[in-house]
Design a protein that fits this description.
Blueprint: H1 7-19, E1 35-37, E2 43-53, E3 59-67, H2 74-94, E4 99-106, E5 118-125, E6 131-133, H3 136-142
Parallel strand pairs: 3-4
Antiparallel strand pairs: 1-2, 2-3, 4-5, 5-6
């Protein structure tokens, strides 16, 4: 009896599983121009990831993404941003940043002249190493 025969189907199955496309679950690291599905069910597209410097000289990582939501949908947008943040925080911490901006960009509307609204959310790492999202007043004061 040949003992290698059962091993071949297992190796073939492992090869298929390793090369099969991954599900649309949120990635561990953000990549520009990547579209993926958040746990809330929204599909977003990462537009850009860049370093920005505040006027006070603090460097932050900015993640701009396109959302199907309107900036007027406060509660839903707030929840969505928090889900994006759960992914982005890994990149922010790997880069050693103490602040980050998650920028929600509405899908452009219009045929000849397109327009979209943007809403930025600032996250800041405290002395206790915990991240908090600043409210609108704190965000404006930080700039």
């Amino acid at each position: 009896m040949n003992r290698r025969t059962p091993l071949l189907p297992l190796l073939a199955l492992a090869a298929v599983l390793l090369t099969a496309p991954h599900s649309q679950a949120a990635p561990l690291i953000l990549t520009e121009n990547e579209t993926f599905k958040l746990p809330c069910g929204h599909t977003i597209k990462v537009l850009s990831i860049s370093k920005v410097e505040f006027s006070k000289g603090v460097m932050a990582l900015m993640v701009r993404y396109q959302t199907p939501l309107s900036v007027d949908e406060n509660k839903a947008l707030s929840q969505e941003v928090d889900e994006v943040w759960k992914i982005a925080v890994k990149d922010v911490e790997r880069g050693g940043y103490k602040e980050a901006i998650i920028s929600s960009n509405e899908e452009p509307k219009g045929i000849f002249i397109s327009a979209n609204h943007v809403l930025n959310f600032l996250y800041e790492k405290g002395a206790d190493n915990k991240w908090t999202r600043l409210n609108r007043t704190d965000f404006m004061a930080a700039q």
